[in-house]
């Protein structure tokens, strides 16, 4: 540089006053141009916030706002001082002024000094980047030697007050620092007017660069020769000198090794086997634990759950001391005698109507705990799993509801939804397992519920073995016939158009055509019904009542038997039932009142025995019903004599099976829903059968009235409760000689 250029950057002792103008005519210009450049700032423009300034620089912004309110402030003489904005040193400080007051006219101008070794700086030249003033405009720093700039800065710093700590020392930057140190000052540290009068600053640079005044030139003007001195608003480097940034691919930076691939070093590292430390081993163990846990949770556990291996299974023991005093292994509980060993000695005989003694031929005391009655569970009883649709019952008969407990057979009727019905109860029947012909049957029971509340329907009854209770396909044309004639009584509706009968006719009549499907042709067969009891409650007396009856067909005119052959022993407790039957059955029934203590919820509840005794001889046959040891009434065979166009009906000659059940149905009695108690239980202490010693028949397949072969030949009907009519089967309705065999 020439002397004029050097003198231009010397630190002056006098303050900077008046207009300053910088004219560059140096032959050491960056581009070798000798052209004169004139920079003038003639307007005030608010600066954008510098992203590299700390939040403490807001004090300087406030000073800038004060300047906007009094533009004349910039026409005063200004003391040349440094203002450290805290960026380079990491702290914020006020303007350095002898009286510690902000009195300079350029409160927040920044000067950026690149390193001398920067490739873009030539020799001792120093390029000052665009400086952001408080008004948002850029001023061009003079091109000067780095030595002169440093000397000037040192002189100016020395003029600062001694009591104030210096924070304006220039930090030494590392090579290729992306964020160079800055010096904030009212004007450039090297902006002292030089000896060459053409090189100076003037206050006109504070005027808007966008004013229409002649001679004003914006720093963004295309006439600017130096590409690194540009307006901060348009600088790609945010107002920083371009020399502070590496612009060439060959330039080296301290962090190049982090992102520049090195094939040689990478290959060397690939061959190295690094042993994992404790942290690495712990990480691997944790990952393995998570993987194994996921496998167990989402694969192993679902498989175990699906196969049932996770369910708890109780140990199977050979005895249950808490349930029974008996100890037996598998199959050792099978009875080998029809008479239960637990039957007391005083119950081994029954005194018949004629005074003869009938021995006990069958008994079940139900003393063994936990007996169940699913199909095949018991020797004598089966609990069906059906809906009893014949009487439109509201309950479903479920084997779960029938069990022996505390020495009794117990049925539980509960409001329990089952098979789309809202009640569940129990029934057991001895169909095709245990039947009897002639004799005395007794069942000792405690009836369910209260003796004064209507709604429940307990039953103890018998039915001919050719009809299975609840299987309507088996009872059609069979129930409740007890007829051995060949006349109008075997025809549909009894050949009467007055609606006395809706029955389809006797299917297995005495005059079926040869080759017809019949158990023993020539004998009228059926399934008569004799009820030990059907329980209800009298709405007038508010006490329990039982109906003891015979159900039969064909019917008497007006369903009225010959009442001269029916005997009632105590008319104060037993009366003729006012209901004698309907189009589906004739009922010869007597109603007897009961003691309310014979019910489950009665005062001092107890058990009572109920039964009937019958003989089926043609002329001397009879049926006698009992409550306790007292006979209530007797029906003699002549009561079923010929009537109208029908002949003599028989007292049941069919082998009778036994049915015990607890039901509920609106077809039986009015139901007092609010007063019923749930659950209700029907309990049986025992069932016993006595027969004359010379006429013991405890089989379901007697010689004169066989049933076994016929049932086996139609087993699908007898085992499917969904077959409700004979027309649903593949079997023909037998033809008879009365209506023609052709």
TrEMBL record:
The keyword Transmembrane applies. InterPro entries: Beta-glucanase-like (IPR000757), ConA-like_dom_sf (IPR013320), Skn1/Kre6/Sbg1 (IPR005629). Residues 351-695 form the GH16 domain. GO terms for biological process: (1->6)-beta-D-glucan biosynthetic process; fungal-type cell wall organization. It is found in: Membrane. Keywords: Cell wall biogenesis/degradation, Glycoprotein, Membrane, Signal-anchor, Transmembrane, Transmembrane helix. Belongs to the SKN1/KRE6 family. One of its GO terms (cellular component) is endoplasmic reticulum membrane. The chain crosses the membrane at residues 281-304. Pfam families: SKN1_KRE6_Sbg1. It is a single-pass type II membrane protein. Residues 1-63, 79-108, 188-216 are annotated as: Disordered. The keyword Cell wall biogenesis/degradation applies. Residues 1-25, 32-43, 188-210 have a biased composition (Polar residues). GO terms for molecular function: glucosidase activity. This is GH16 domain-containing protein.
């Amino acid at each position: 540089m020439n002397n004029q250029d050097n003198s231009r950057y010397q630190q002056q002792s006098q303050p900077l006053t008046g207009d300053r103008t910088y004219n560059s005519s140096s032959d050491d210009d960056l581009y070798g141009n000798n052209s004169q450049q004139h920079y003038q700032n003639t307007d005030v423009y608010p600066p954008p916030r510098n992203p590299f300034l700390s939040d403490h620089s807001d004090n300087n912004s406030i000073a800038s706002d004060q300047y906007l309110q009094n533009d004349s402030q910039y026409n005063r003489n200004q003391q040349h001082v440094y203002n450290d904005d805290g960026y380079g040193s990491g702290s914020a400080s006020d303007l350095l002024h002898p009286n510690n007051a902000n009195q300079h006219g350029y409160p927040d101008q920044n000067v950026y000094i690149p390193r001398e070794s920067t490739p873009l700086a030539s020799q001792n030249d120093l390029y000052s980047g665009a400086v952001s003033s408080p008004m948002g405009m850029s001023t061009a720093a003079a091109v000067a030697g780095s030595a002169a700039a440093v000397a000037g800065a040192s002189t100016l710093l020395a003029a600062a007050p001694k009591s104030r700590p210096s924070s304006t020392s220039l930090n030494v930057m590392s090579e290729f620092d992306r964020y160079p140190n800055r010096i904030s000052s009212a004007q450039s540290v090297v902006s002292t007017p030089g000896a060459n009068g053409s090189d100076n600053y003037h206050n006109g640079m504070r005027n808007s660069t966008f004013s229409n005044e002649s001679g004003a030139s914006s720093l963004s003007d295309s006439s600017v020769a130096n590409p690194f001195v540009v307006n901060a608003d348009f600088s790609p480097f945010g107002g920083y000198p371009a020399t502070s940034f590496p612009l060439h691919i060959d330039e080296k930076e301290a962090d190049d090794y982090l992102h520049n691939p090195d094939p040689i070093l990478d290959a060397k590292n690939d061959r190295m086997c690094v042993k994992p430390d404790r942290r690495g081993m712990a990480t691997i163990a944790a990952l393995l634990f998570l993987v194994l846990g996921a496998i167990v949770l989402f694969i192993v556990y679902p498989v175990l759950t699906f196969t049932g291996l996770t369910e708890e299974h109780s140990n199977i023991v050979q005895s249950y001391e808490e349930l029974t005093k008996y100890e037996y292994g598998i199959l050792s509980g099978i009875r080998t005698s029809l008479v239960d060993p637990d039957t007391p000695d005083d119950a081994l005989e029954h005194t018949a109507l004629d005074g003869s003694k009938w021995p006990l031929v069958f008994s079940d005391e139900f003393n063994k705990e936990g007996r169940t009655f699913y199909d095949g569970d018991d020797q004598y009883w089966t609990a069906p799993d059906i809906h009893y649709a014949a009487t439109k019952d509201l309950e479903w008969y479920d084997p779960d509801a029938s069990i022996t407990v505390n020495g009794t057979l117990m049925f539980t009727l509960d409001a329990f939804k089952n098979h789309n019905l809202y009640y569940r109860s129990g029934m057991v029947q001895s169909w095709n397992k245990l039947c009897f012909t002639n004799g005395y049957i007794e069942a000792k029971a405690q009836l369910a519920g209260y003796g004064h509340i209507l709604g429940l329907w307990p039953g103890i009854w018998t039915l001919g073995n050719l009809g299975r209770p609840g299987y309507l396909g088996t009872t059609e044309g069979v129930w409740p016939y007890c007829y051995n004639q060949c006349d109008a009584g075997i025809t549909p509706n009894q050949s009467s158009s007055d609606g006395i009968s809706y029955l389809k006719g006797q299917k297995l009549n005495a005059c079926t055509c040869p080759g017809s499907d019949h158990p023993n042709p020539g004998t009228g067969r059926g399934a008569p019904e004799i009820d030990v009891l059907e329980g209800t409650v009298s709405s007038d007396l508010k006490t329990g009542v039982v109906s003891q009856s015979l159900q039969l067909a064909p019917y008497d005119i007006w369903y009225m038997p010959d009442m001269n052959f029916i005997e009632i022993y105590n008319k104060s407790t037993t009366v003729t039932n006012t209901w004698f039957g309907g189009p589906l059955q004739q009922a010869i029934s007597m109603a007897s009142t009961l003691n309310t203590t014979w019910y489950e919820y009665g005062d001092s509840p107890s058990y009572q025995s109920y039964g009937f005794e019958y003989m089926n001889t043609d002329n001397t046959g009879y049926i006698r019903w009992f409550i306790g040891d007292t006979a209530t009434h007797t029906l003699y065979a002549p009561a079923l004599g010929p009537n109208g166009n029908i002949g003599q009906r028989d007292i049941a000659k069919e082998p009778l099976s036994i049915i015990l059940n607890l039901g509920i149905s609106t077809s039986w009695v009015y139901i007092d829903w609010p007063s019923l108690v749930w659950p209700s239980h029907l309990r049986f202490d025992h069932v016993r059968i006595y027969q004359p010693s010379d006429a013991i028949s405890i089989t379901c397949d007697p010689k004169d009235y066989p049933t076994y072969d016929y049932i086996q030949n139609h087993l699908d009907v007898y085992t499917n409760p969904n077959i409700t009519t004979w027309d649903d089967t593949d079997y023909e309705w037998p033809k008879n000689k009365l209506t023609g065999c052709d």
